[in-house]
Amino acid sequence: DPVEDKEALLDFRRHIQHSRSLNWNESSSVCNTWTGVTCNEDQSRVIALRLPAMALNGSIPPNTISRLSAIETLSLRSNSIYGFIPSDLSKLQNLTYLYLEFNRFSGPLPLDFSVWKKLTVVDLSNNFFNGSIPSSITNLTRLTTLILANNSLSGDIPDLNVPSLQQLNLSNNNLTGSVPHSLQRFPSSALSENALPPALPVQPPNIQPSMRKHSRISEPTLLGIILGGCVLVFVAIAILIICCYSTKGGRDGRPAKSQKIEKSLKKGVSERTESQVKNSRLVFFEGCNLAFDLEDLLRASAEVLGKGTFGTTYKAALEDATTVVVKRLKELNVGKREFEQQMEMVGSIRHENVAPLRAYYYSKDEKLMVYDYYHQGSISAILHGRRGEGRTALDWDTRLRIAISTARGIAHIHTENGGKFVHGDIRASNIFLNSQGNVYVSDIGLATLMSPMPPPVVRAAGYRAPEVTDIRKATHASDVYSFGVLLLELLTGKSSTNTTGSDEVVHLVRWVNSVVREEWTAEVFDVELLRYPNIEEEMVEMLQIGMACVVRIPEQRPKMLDIVKMVEEIRQVGTGNKSEISSPTTSTPQAISEIGSSVAAH
Ligand SMILES: Nc1ncnc2c1ncn2[C@@H]1O[C@H](COP(=O)(O)OP(=O)(O)OP(=O)(O)O)[C@@H](O)[C@H]1O
């Protein structure tokens, strides 16, 4: 651990008020457990400190952060920090990203920006900074973003001739003078709400600048402008969304990475008033090392992953290169209290096979859930996506591992809330693999939040136990049924529902039952599995478990804890190749048909 950095951070915490708890224990590892702290690869130095929306209150204590001399990212946005930017921060020679917006900083900006040679992004907006904009900013040759909006900066705008600068916002200050040539390439909004002369004089030029210099726009007028702006934004976004959906995603059939959709994620918040935004925070769960706030999420470039039963799911890349998944829920049937209770329950579940809910957000218009992004995608996508040439088939060992891990995950969920918790929506599209191949059960407990009249849940149909008529009333036994369907899916490679040539929908359970009844068991298994040697008995074993889970009468289905044992034992009762990893070779389908009839007996 970087001992000196640790001391500096502890000193920082000691000298600044923070009403949200910071898990910075002296005995724990700075690099691995401390919220908001990131270290370099060999864990010798702290390189990022991100404490957005941590309710920090006070001024930045001198000689604390300035000792983190390797720091590249400093984000203290959306707190209540006041006072000057301490001059000793000039020691942070590696500082690249500086986010101090939405605080109560005041006083002049640091005079000499050139000490931070690597500065790339600077956001000091929404504070009370005054004085002029230092011309030393011109020396920042790597600067791409400069946001100083909503302060009380005055004086002439310096000639910021910084070729790398791509994003500029100096709006809503008291800046005067003419727009320097170097800044004329930016949209006029970058400089709006200042005391600059208008580009086209609509009033006598000698009157307007001086009037505006002394009188800021009155609040009702400002409100009018904001509301008008919001309506315009809303209409524009509505048009964009319509355009977007009419093209049904990217031309190649994949979800379109689209700015329009990104805007739609932002829409909900742009409609809210500023005070609502300030009062509504993302609620993080303990142990979550992610450090971002709502503004980060809204700023993130978002890509639509898909639309599911509960809303739209986005992949959002945050400024620090973290990727998260944001579920934007729709049509919920619950109020704030019930939503929060359910989220707290879901967020407290910790198991190696359960996708942790990282954070959630609730407001009247917007309900968000934040998860880790799983690089390999869902089991459904891996199993059914892209059949044909160039496809990597899901091997038997992986399918077995998915079955065991999912069973363990669900069994754990069933022990929560005094053994009353139900997943309610087990299916292949809610089970994920991360880049290391670990398995995670996701989307827990969402079904119970649905509105009384959910949209036709076609996708869930093949997984839904026959006794479940209302998806909000799922039970442990109905989860077991859905898990059984998942096992059948892993074995057959077929989706939970399939459409025949005559457009008839055939449920996988019915199909498997009919095939097994006719003693054609060998036909059941995925042809992609026939390449693996000595797995027949294991497959038959899994088929038996799957079929036991999908029996019609709920009371006759095994309990999840028993299922875990049964699935774990597949290897032991199988061919005895317990520790071997089956590799793709050829095996004859006859071998399977010989043992197939043993399943029919069950
Ligand atoms: N944490 C995640 N990591 C990676 N991909 C995800 C994650 N969560 C969801 N996805 C993907 O986003 C897409 C949309 O997911 P979403 O959960 O909204 O709908 P679904 O799973 O397709 O359907 P349903 O909500 O009805 O279960 C799916 O392709 C899903 O695989």
UniProtKB/TrEMBL annotation:
List each copy of the Protein kinase domain by range.
299-570
This entry's Gene Ontology molecular function terms read: ATP binding; protein kinase activity
Key words of the record? ATP-binding, Leucine-rich repeat, Membrane, Nucleotide-binding, Phosphoprotein, Repeat, Signal, Transmembrane, Transmembrane helix
Q: Which residues bind ATP?
A: K327
Q: Name one GO cellular component term.
A: membrane
- Listed transmembrane segments: 222-245
List, alphabetically, the InterPro entries matched.
Answer: At_inactive_RLKs, Kinase-like_dom_sf, Leu-rich_rpt, Leu-rich_rpt_4, LRR_dom_sf, LRR_N_plant-typ, Prot_kinase_dom, Protein_kinase_ATP_BS
Q: Which Gene3D superfamilies match?
A: Phosphorylase Kinase, domain 1, Ribonuclease Inhibitor, Transferase(Phosphotransferase) domain 1
Q: What is its main location?
A: membrane
Positions with biased composition (Polar residues):
576-591
- Localization (cell): Membrane
Region annotation Disordered: where it falls in the sequence: 576-602
Q: What name has this protein been given in UniProt?
A: Protein kinase domain-containing protein
Task: Name the species this protein comes from.
Answer: Dipteronia dyeriana
